[in-house]
Amino acid sequence: MKTKEINGFPFVEYVRDTYEPHEMTERSETYYHWLNNRRTVRDFSDTPIPKEVIENILKSASTAPSGAHKQPWTFCVVSNPEIKKQIRIAAEEEEKESYSKRMSEEWLHDLEHLGTDWHKPFLEIAPYLIVVFKKAYNINGEDKTNNYYVNESVGLASGFLLTAIHNAGLVALTHTPSPMGFLTKILNRPENERPFLLIPVGYPAEETYVPKLERKPLERISKFYE
Ligand code: IYR
Hints:
It is built from eight helices and eight strands; from the N terminus they run ββααβαααβββαβαβα. The chain is α+β, with helices and mostly antiparallel strands.
């Protein structure tokens, strides 16, 4: 491995996989078709998953770029049935309140086609709950240090997490019970961490249906300036 110093810091030579244009086209198309099969799933099987798979998925998520390479995230992995139950009870309490009082008519209307409601049985059924926390700042003993672009960074890591889950042949739900403060309490997280997403992971239930969705075509999601 070739190395050198830049401004007194160690750098390593970046070694790339590169492809001819035709191969690049084929690979990018194959990847798109593979990724287009990812779906958010709400019905999980309780079939166990090797812990090592979850560990690899987390390592993949943590390869995401982050502001100043601070990696401002903690992935809490819950498989303990008692803790899952506590999370379900607390989430359903908040969701009941949201669906009946806090969400607007327009919001409820926008969700109708997804078939969601306040019941969250998947929080106990899925073998793993990955609770993503963002670190607003770092605590090192008495010292506090900054993180940068925290939402962007943790959003990117969560995206990497979802593709890693898809690659393992598993499914996930990006769940956002609101407000999420109960996760800080139940998981006993420090004051610098804020809950970001709650992601049940597992195999899909034996017979699983997902909403029939259309994805926006390229023309509606992009504009080329040539
Ligand atoms: N957090 C609620 C409601 C909900 C909100 C959106 I925006 C969704 O895309 C789906 C659900 C819930 O998880 O049910």
